[in-house]
Design brief:
By secondary structure, the chain is of the alpha/beta class. The chain is built from 6 helices and 7 strands; from the N terminus they run ααβαβαββαβαββ. The termini are far apart.
């Protein structure tokens, strides 16, 4: 018998990034969503609560277990997949929406984009290089975008909306880049 973390419904509901919140309307009941580097699942769970079929992948079994507990507490179904994000192939289907929040792998970005089906959306947000000066978050250049880099990384998709901002959330600042891009039919 599995041991439960005892996550309550109120503990399971987490605030998503503002970028996700602003664009949650693109997620429709029945749409297929891939969440790459899902961590503890806050965006995957939010998409599932909107009625999407969600596949969420991460390399940490511990984070996936927490995510499963949170989804169970909310009564939502998500397909949680453990894989090595540096080597293992992504699920071989193409998705209506591919989300990548606070995860960056420049080498595999093409694979992430290939998972978007024609007419589908790539929704992403991650830290920019100024984040290292704020004493929290990643400080290695491998995990920090340079100015305007995200726009280049999402080619050949068509950028619909993008931003590079310093955003204050819960008294913390985040220096981030965000993009919503579409694979034309």
């Amino acid at each position: 018998m599995e041991e439960s973390l005892g996550v309550s419904e109120s503990e399971a509901i987490e605030v998503t990034s503002t970028w996700f919140t602003w664009h949650a309307g693109i997620i429709r009941p029945g749409s297929t969503v891939l969440d790459v580097g899902c961590g503890e699942g806050r965006h995957a769970i939010a998409a599932a609560r909107l009625g999407a079929h969600v596949v969420a992948v991460d390399s940490s079994t511990a984070r996936l277990e927490v995510a499963k507990e949170k989804a169970q507490a909310l009564g939502v179904a998500v397909e949680w997949v453990h894989l090595d994000l540096e080597r293992d192939p992504l699920p071989q289907e193409r998705f209506d929406i591919v989300m990548v929040f606070y995860y960056l792998d420049r080498r595999r970005m093409g694979e992430f984009l290939d998972a978007v089906k024609p007419g589908g959306i790539f929704l992403a947000e991650t830290f920019r290089n100024g984040q290292r000066d704020l004493d929290w978050g990643p400080n290695c250049e491998d995990y920090l975008l340079t100015d305007c880099e995200l726009l280049e990384l999402v080619k050949p998709l068509e950028v619909i909306l993008a931003r590079e901002v310093t955003e204050e959330v819960n008294e913390d600042q985040k220096i981030i880049a965000s993009v919503l891009a579409e694979r034309k039919k």
